[in-house]
Design goal:
Blueprint lengths: L4 E6 L2 E6 L11 H15 L6 E6 L10 H6 L8 H10 L3 H8 L4 E5 L2 E3 L1 H7 L3 E5 L3 E3 L13 H9 L1 H10 L3 E2 H6 L5 E3 L4 H13 L3 H14 L4 H15 L3 H18 L1
Parallel strand pairs: 2-3, 3-4, 4-6, 5-7, 6-9
Antiparallel strand pairs: 1-2, 7-8
Helix pairs in contact: 1-4, 5-6, 6-7, 10-11
Length: about 260
């Protein structure tokens, strides 16, 4: 079977495309789950990669879990409660861990509905740009289940606890304009402009030194969990490393060259 997650590198930017448009990019099989950490590991090993775009093929970003499998108690939802728990831990929960630990900045280009696990998947990225056709729903409660993939950790950090509670407790859909208003996405664009906008943002990120980008992202992650004192210690260590990179020396020289030209 063709891979669910297409991997395409163009210069310093990798685009990952969920490619089951007929199934609205539903995310429920062990094979699909495994492809995300595999892609993240491939990116980690390639220091030339400086930005990642995640999107979906077809009209949907990701429809989340397969409700037919839920009804039939197959796949991820098969077996005893202990079986299901272990399958979550060794399956879909590998995705948030892999994306969170990825040092390269990530952009979700949400081309259509992002429902359930699809909504959470978008939240696992650092930045989100949405098509006007996008819609978000933390819809687990509608099916009598809970976010099993880390959504209750990511969502409040993006939209605040009150809005996250509203989305989680009601399961109601959030259209693109509302998503922009509450900070769930940073920009909405016409559908035909989505990938161009995402690529433009990725290129602006990738134009910066890769070592500095990766360390800056690591500090942002650490700042969500550590004390100020600990973060400052990390920052001092990372800054010492940054000052000895060739990219820093080149950037400083360019700064002075540009300043000299402006004076002429």
């Amino acid at each position: 079977m063709n891979r669910f997650l297409l991997y395409e590198r163009d210069g310093a930017v990798v685009t990952l495309t969920m490619n089951r448009p007929a199934e609205r990019n539903a995310l429920t099989t062990a094979e699909q789950f495994a492809e995300f950490p595999e892609a993240c590991e491939r990116i980690r090993r390639d220091p030339a990669v400086r930005a990642v775009i995640l999107t979906g093929a077809g009209p949907a970003f990701c429809a989340g879990g397969n409700v037919m499998d839920m009804r039939n108690k197959t796949g991820l939802f098969e077996g005893s409660p202990q079986d299901i728990r272990n399958r979550y831990r060794s399956g879909i929960q590998r995705i948030p861990l892999a994306l969170y630990e990825l040092e390269v900045p990530t952009i979700a280009a949400i081309n259509g509905p992002a429902v359930g696990a699809g909504c959470d998947l978008a939240c696992m990225c650092d930045l989100r740009i949405a098509s006007e056709r996008a819609m978000f729903a933390e819809s687990f409660v509608k099916l009598g289940i809970i976010p099993g993939d880390g959504g209750t950790w990511f969502l409040p950090r993006i939209v605040g606890m009150s809005k996250a509670a509203e989305m989680t407790f009601t399961g109601d859909p959030v259209p693109a304009r509302e998503a922009l208003a509450c900070g769930l996405v940073s920009k909405i664009v016409p559908p035909e402009q989505l990938m161009d906008e995402a690529r433009s943002l990725a290129d602006r990120i990738a134009a910066n030194p890769g070592v500095a980008l990766r360390m800056a992202k690591r500090l942002l992650r650490a700042g969500q969990q550590t004390s100020l004192e600990t973060l400052l210690e990390m920052s001092a260590a990372f800054q010492a490393i940054a000052h000895h990179t060739p990219e820093h020396g080149d950037a400083v020289e360019r700064f002075f060259d540009q300043a000299t030209r402006r004076k002429r």
